[in-house]
Amino acid sequence: MSTLADNAYLRLREDIVTGRIAAETVLSERGLTEVLGVSRTPLRTALGRLERDGMVDRLANGVILVRSVTVEQLLQIVQLRQRLEGAAAGRAAQRGTTARLTELRDAMARLADGAEVTFDAFWVADGTFHKAVAEAAGLRLLPNILDDHRAIARRCTLTRTYDTFTEQAREHVEIADAIAAGDADAATALMQGHFEHVQDRFLGTFKGR
Length: 209
Hints:
- By secondary structure, the chain is mainly α.
- It folds into 2 domains: about 1-65, Arc Repressor Mutant, subunit A (Orthogonal Bundle), CATH 1.10.10; about 70-205, Four Helix Bundle (Hemerythrin (Met), subunit A), CATH 1.20.120.
- Helices cover about 70% and strands about 5% of the residues.
- It has a 3-stranded antiparallel β-sheet with strand order 1-3-2.
- Strand 2 and strand 3 form a beta hairpin.
């Protein structure tokens, strides 16, 4: 039963994070048992985990609602990541780059030069790059923290409004080059500036609505 509950949890979590199940959606236990092919007991276990994760709310009348992520929450994540990852980039520069980070730098360079990429593909590449910086810094706990932050951020519809990623890819290249050059101050400043630009893009999109 635990395996069924785990599978139901992972599938629902992925659908909520990626927006396949939109915020403010009311979830029907009966409907979910049919879609997921599980009984109500493992489903309720899965929903309980999602509730503890802050992804769904069980209202007083028993209705299960997918929680939304506000613009304010999104910006708080950006600001927190700016501090954490700015420090990580500087530490990575002091320790030296890695083969993995060099490989990802070259992939980002191709995107900066205009190679086509979908939102979903860039989202994965972006996460891989940022985790590689954390790993180069020797910060073993940070990649999991980033996964949690990104899972929340992706649920905000504002994150899915982009269709071009050349500027973000270029910023990644500059960060990786500063790390490779061993310039801790530049690496820190570039990573912090990267998140300033992320915040500006979010706010610009929001104001343009």
